[in-house]
Amino acid sequence: MPTKIQGVIAYRKALRQFEPDLAKETTKEITAFLKPVVKDARGYLPSNAEAPSGWLKRPNAKGRWANRYYDATIARRSISYKTSPSKANRSGFRALASIFNKGAAGAIYETAGRKSGVTGKFTPKLGGQLKGDKPKMTGRAIFRAFEEDQGKATAGVIKAIERSAAKFNAKVKG
Amino acid sequence: MADLRVDIAAEFVGKKAFKDADNAALRLDKTIKKLGRTLGVTLGASAIIAYSKASVKAFSDDEAAARRLSSAVDNLGLSFSKVQVATFISDLERTASIADDVLRPAFQSLLNITGSLTKSQELLNNAIQISRASGVDLATVTNDLGKGYVGITRGLIKYNTGLTRAELQTKGFNEILGIMLAKSAGAAQDYLTTTSFKMDTLALASENAKETIGKGLVDAFARIGGGTEAKDAAKAIDNIAKAVNGVTLVLGTAIGLVNKFRQGYTNFLMDPLGTGMGGAGASSTNRSASPAGTAVRLRQQREAEAAAVKRAKQVADLTKKQVASTKALTAEQKKQASLKKSGTVFDLEQIQIVAALKGQVTKEEEIRLQAQLALLNGNADLAKKLTDQILKAQDSSGNLAKFLAALPNARNPFEYLDAYLSYLAGKAAAIAVGTPFGQSAPNENAAPAPVPATNIPTMPSDGMITYNTRTGLNYNPNANNVVVELKITGEGDVTNAIAKGLQNQSLSTGDSAYINRRTGGFAG
Fold first, then answer.
1. Residue B474 DSSP one-character state
2. Per-residue DSSP letters for chain A?
3. Which of A54, A158, B239, B422 is the most buried (most CB within 10 A)?
4. CB neighbour list of residue B414: distance below 8 Å, 6 or more residues apart
5. Which residues contact B436 (CB under 8 A, 6 or more apart)?
6. How far is the C-alpha of B494 from the C-alpha of B498, rounded, in Å?
7. Do A9 and B1 touch (CB under 8 A)?
């Protein structure tokens, strides 16, 4: 569940304009809390040797399956973070920071079996652990890393913003 | 593909759909309001409340103005004439279609200035006529007439009476007023036939209705608010504004109360004591048929009129005195000017000049005397003319030119330097071309040329600056220095003394640079 806070986006926008140094410092602090989660998430991805052999790149593959393969390097590269606010979602929320997994193969590894269960021929071969507090926040890479982080990243981001706001107020007042 | 993302610390910024709905509602609201205004239809409870508030305000303003006038009448000692004043204002409002809000302050200012009820009424009527004719607003006209009444007629110039400023100052107020009224005659009657007058009448009726409703609302809402004062009414109106849904019902009740109140108010005016004997239906008694207080009122009016007449007479006398003093001052100034003119006859300087002119004088002297006389009398033109003639005469005589021609040439004070400079120039030229100049060039062995003799006293030399005929001046800063050369060559007393001194210095400062060569320790 994302933590709801108010006025931070406007604050960070103002900060960039009036105190660019403090804005950079804030971003750096937020980054410091996000990076470990990203690192863990990347660590949960299987190497090419661990991945199901049929899922790897086949030089002779043709047609639609020619590009549907798992590559550990690409999958790891696709897991990243961002400290700028996101667009508002359908409920009207904008995230201040986010960790995402945007690779196709990485997404399959992340989510496979979270709805139908670890059954069939493919999903059990993926390995890893599906972790998360609710269905849409369950996964093997980023969701697992976030779950195991136990909210430290969120708390750290908020703390970083609070500290920054305190510094800004101190500067403004005096 | 699903958006695989972990959002950290999200902020709610509102749904777009909500904003759209808000904007749409706002636009709709604006459109409806505009339509309502265009059609002149007071839509909704808010319009009713706004009108109610405006009515209450109009009533309160009117009431305050009435109280001010009442106090002014009291202060002038005409307390028993309040009803007459109210009737006069009310009648004038009806006939001239000028709101009592305007009439009351105008009448009050006139009453304060004149102190007379009749004079104030007369002046207010005149002011209305002049205002209608000139287009100047009634308050300004009343103010100007009031000032004119006490002799300050400067403001009356704007009414284009045809009188000069001086005439306005010297003529009496009644005379000026007569001229103004003559010029604006019929304007008030003509105005009654115009559409503007009809519009004024309608506006006035609307304003009066507003005031009446305001009064009714104050009382009615005060009762709704559980009190009897205006603040209770205000509270009630605010409560009603909050409860918009119920306002129509409440207003309906209020209008009913207004009618009730109006009836009650009329009854109260007819019979303030509630005896049931008010108005025309009162039974006959042995008392005078005139209303109570008539005698006192008449007496007050008589006294006030007398005081006003007295005051007017004083003002008139004062004006007369002022005019008389101005005239006297002007006459005195004229007299002074005449005396000054006559005084010039006895001016001794002038007498002397005139006497001289009568004597045997040359033409030039005559002109000079005439010019002097003109200067004394301040006749600038004649003085200039004669002065020009004198100058011309001086120029034509030519004596001055002759004198200047006879003057010898001024001697050149540096004449004696010419020969010397020529000599120097020749020498410089000879040096430049390398040819002997009159004499052979001096060789090394030749005796130097002697230093030219001058009258500059010879200063004692210290040998630092010397002069050489070939090289010029020389400066030797060391010329007077005495060199003392000290040499320490052996192990004698001087060397030991220096070594000891250095070792002692080492011990006192702690510097180990100077140590005993033999013992390796510090020298002792």
1. E
2. -PPEESSHHHHHHHHHHH-HHHHHHHHHHHHHHHHHHHHHHHHHSPPTTTS-GGGB--TT--GGGGS--B-HHHHHHHEEEE-S-----TTSEEEEEEEEE--HHHHHHHHTTTTT-S-TTTHHHH-S--B-SSGGG-BSSHHHHHHHHTTHHHHHHHHHHHHHHHHHHHHHH-
3. A158
4. none
5. B430
6. 6
7. no
Summarize the confidence of residues B176-202 as an average pLDDT: 76
Name the packing angle between helices A142-149 and A152-173 (round to 10°).
70
Name the DSSP class of B481: -
Q: Identity (one letter) of the amino acid at B252?
A: G
Task: Tell whether A91 is covered by a domain.
Answer: yes
Contact between B78 and B304 under an 8 Å Cβ cutoff? The reply is yes
Listed in sequence order, the residues at least 6 apart from B262 whose beta carbon sits closer than 8 Å to its beta carbon are B212, B216
Element (H, E) at B148: helix B138-149
Range 119-148 of A in CB contact (< 8 A) with B: 137, 139, 142-143, 146
ipTM of the complex: 0.88
Question: At residue B465, what are phi and psi to the nearest 5 degrees?
Answer: -115, 125
| Backbone φ/ψ region at B264: left (φ over 0), alpha (ψ -120 to 50), beta | alpha
pLDDT tens per residue across span B423-432: 888 888 888 7
Looking at the domain assignment, is residue A33 inside a domain? yes
* Residue A43 forms part of a structural domain: yes
Q: A52-56, B424-428, B495-499: which range is least confident on average?
A: B495-499
Distance from CA of A170 to the nearest CA of B (A): 24
User: Is residue A56 included in any domain, yes or no?
Assistant: yes
What is the extent of the structural domain holding A29? 8-102+149-173
Chain A residues with beta carbon closer than 8 angstroms to that of B5 = 86, 95, 98-101, 142
The pTM assigned to this predicted structure is 0.33
Query: Which of B8, B13, B16 lies at the smallest CB-CB distance from A153?
Result: B8
Helices B294-343 + B100-114 axis angle, to 10? 60
Q: Tell me: the pLDDT tens digits for B152-162?
A: 887 888 887 77
Domains of chain A: total:
1
